[in-house]
Amino acid sequence: MADVGVNGFFSTKRLGYNPSTHRSTSLGLSVMVLFSDHHVPTSRCPFCENEMDGAANVEGGRGPIPGDFTICIHCAQPLIFLAGLQLGKPKPGEFEAVCRIHKKFGIKMRATIAIIRNLDRKRRSS
Ligand SMILES: [Zn+2]
Question: Is residue 61 part of a domain?
């Protein structure tokens, strides 16, 4: 099955990025923030309430559109872009179902979740 049209993202705070304050965090997180190259309207994660205004396409392509999935860089929860690119909670099982159908999408999104969780662990332990 082709994966045409299925793009995954992760969400970050884009305009708040400050290299001097990020120097102490891991290189990986800084790189992820820098790659958040699509500016989206400011929206709060419905799980952790952190504000974000950036989105990075895990494929390195287009910007997000309503219906695309994204991963919160703060809490690693799968989110969905709603109308106006506001961040919403996916319906129960919705993200997992898309991951099952679109294998490449699923692998990249699960890898992104694992990377964010790993960075978070390092942040907490340092
Ligand atoms: Zn969150």
Answer: yes
For 47, the domain range is 8-125
Classify residue 2: in a domain, yes or no: no
Do 63 and 38 touch, CB atoms closer than 8 A?
A: yes
Q: What is the pTM of this model?
A: 0.79
Residues whose Cβ atom is located within 5 A of ion ligand 1: 45, 47-48, 72, 74-75
* Tokens encoding 74: 């703060």
Considering its fold, how many domains does the chain have in total? 1
Specify whether the backbone of 91 is left (phi greater than 0), alpha (psi in -120 to 50) or beta. beta
- Which of the listed ranges 12-21, 24-33, 61-70 does the model predict with the highest average pLDDT? 61-70
